[in-house]
């Protein structure tokens, strides 16, 4: 009976620890830029004043993370139109600095996207997008959004030729106040497996004890 009591206590403490782990909250962070103004146009990779317009609608990007790991990717909106879907984002650098109170005090983020498509009317299309955001000492304290696309013309025999590339840069100041931090419970499969294994072991021990007493 004493051994039964010990096993029950062990089971209760193990169950409490597993439940605490299962319900533990992970931190979900989302950074949203301010409105980014058109800064410069590019032709074939070089600045060109004839590309783009200062009156262009502002761009806004939003990026989500679980802790320091990219979570939902990024949404980019220009003139209330979403232009880049989140699952295409390719991270280059994702550094997020925290203080002891769990606040974001600095970061250095960099992402790149390349999308390719083809249509009979426009031919092959290659669109490149990059996002940069940083804040802190020895950093630019800025948000940047760049996108560009190839200029193609039709040729004979249903062929196409790339004759250039246009690019558009939007930027503005970064802001630590634009971070939104939430707690999101994320159950872990490993916790459930450990709980099931514990139940199985206790069941076997209980059966052996019953057989022994009989």
Q: How would you characterize this protein structure?
A:
A hairpin with a 6-residue loop joins β9 and β10 (142-155). α1 runs antiparallel to α2 (189-213). Strands 3-2-11-10-9-8-7 form a seven-stranded antiparallel sheet, with no helix packed on it. It has 214 residues and is an alpha+beta fold. It has two helices and twelve strands, in the order αββββββββββββα.
Topology:
Elements: H1 2-22, E1 25-32, E2 37-43, E3 46-47, E4 59-66, E5 69-78, E6 81-84, E7 90-98, E8 104-119, E9 123-135, E10 142-155, E11 159-173, E12 179-185, H2 189-213
Antiparallel strand pairs: 1-4, 1-12, 2-3, 2-11, 4-5, 5-6, 7-8, 8-9, 9-10, 10-11
What are the salient characteristics of this protein?
single chain, 214 residues, alpha+beta, 2 domains, seven-stranded antiparallel β-sheet, five-stranded antiparallel β-sheet, 21% helix, 53% strand, flat
> Can you list the strand order of the major beta sheet?
3-2-11-10-9-8-7
Series of secondary-structure elements, N-terminal to C-terminal? HEEEEEEEEEEEEH
Strand content: over 45%
The value of Rg in angstroms is 27 Å
Query: Could you give the count of β-strands?
Result: 12
Low-confidence stretches: none
Distance between the termini: 14 Å
Class by alpha and beta content: alpha+beta
Describe the global form. Answer: flat
What would the average pLDDT be, to the nearest integer? 78
| Largest sheet entry | 7 strands, antiparallel
Quick structural summary:
With 214 residues, this protein is of the alpha+beta class. It contains 2 helices and 12 strands; from the N terminus they run H-E-E-E-E-E-E-E-E-E-E-E-E-H.
């Amino acid at each position: 009976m004493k051994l039964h009591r010990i096993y029950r206590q062990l089971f209760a403490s193990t169950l409490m620890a597993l439940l605490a782990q299962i319900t533990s909250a992970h931190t979900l962070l989302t950074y949203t830029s301010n409105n980014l103004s058109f800064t410069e146009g590019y032709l074939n990779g070089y600045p060109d004043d004839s590309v783009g317009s200062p009156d262009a609608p502002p761009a806004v990007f939003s990026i989500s993370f679980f802790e320091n790991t990219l979570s939902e990717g990024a949404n980019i909106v220009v003139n209330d139109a979403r232009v880049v879907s989140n699952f295409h984002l390719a991270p280059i650098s994702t550094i997020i600095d925290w203080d002891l109170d769990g606040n974001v005090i600095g970061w250095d983020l960099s992402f790149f996207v390349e999308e390719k498509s083809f249509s009979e009317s426009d031919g092959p299309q290659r669109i490149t997008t990059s996002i940069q955001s940083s804040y802190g000492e020895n950093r630019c304290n800025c948000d940047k959004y760049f996108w560009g696309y190839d200029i193609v013309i039709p040729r004979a025999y249903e062929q196409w030729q790339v004759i250039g590339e246009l690019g558009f840069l939007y930027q503005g100041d970064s802001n630590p106040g634009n971070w939104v931090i939430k707690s999101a419970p994320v159950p872990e499969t490993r916790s459930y497996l450990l709980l099931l294994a514990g139940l199985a072991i206790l069941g076997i021990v209980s059966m052996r004890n019953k057989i022994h007493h009989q």
